[in-house]
Amino acid sequence: MSGQLGDLLSFRRIAAIPFDACMAALESWQLSGQDGELRLGHSVLRGPIERDHHFGTCRIEVRLARGRLRPRVRMRLEIEPWSSTTTVLELLPGRLVRPDAAYFAAGHGLLDFLIRGLPARVPAQQRPDQGQLRAAVGAGGPAVRPA
After folding, report:
1. Beta carbons of 26 and 60 less than 8 angstroms apart
2. Contact assessment for residue 33 and residue 57, using Cβ atoms and an 8 Å cutoff
3. How far is C-alpha 28 from the geometric centre of its chain's CA atoms?
4. Quick one: which of 87, 46, 89, 88 has its CA closest to 64?
5. DSSP label at 13?
6. pTM for this structure?
């Protein structure tokens, strides 16, 4: 699906988490799920995670639940780096859908739920190491004492 109609039916969020940390969290969730699936409410993220090394993006198949009596909508979650500290998550329909309030509520709810579950902290390898802290103290910076 392309063009303006596809854009109106997709859901996009920019998360304040580095791309690598976001992918590490999604991969760990996938490993902990059954058969490579992660259930978020009644919706399902299905593995494996596809990586496009040329563009640096990832894609996960999603089955979006819109209610008990409705079939899940096949979608895809595209994940790409936005900057060194942020990641874009976009949920795109895989086929033509009939948009209604339940569709929009489910799409927004799934992305909100997913982003709330991502780690809020930057991974340890991206924090300044103890050598950098000692150099700052030695150069007249504030004294840092272990708690």
Report:
1. yes
2. no
3. 12
4. 46
5. E
6. 0.72
One digit per residue, the tens of pLDDT, for the chain of length 147 reads 444 555 678 999 999 999 999 998 888 876 666 677 888 888 988 878 899 888 889 999 999 998 888 889 999 999 999 999 999 999 999 888 888 899 999 999 999 988 988 876 554 444 444 333 333 333 333 333 333
How many CB atoms neighbour CB 143 within 10 A?
5
Domain CATH for 92: 3.30.530
Q: What are phi and psi of 13, to 5 degrees?
A: -135, 145
Measured CA to CA, the distance from residue 129 to residue 84 in angstroms comes to 18
Specify the number of domains making up the chain: 1
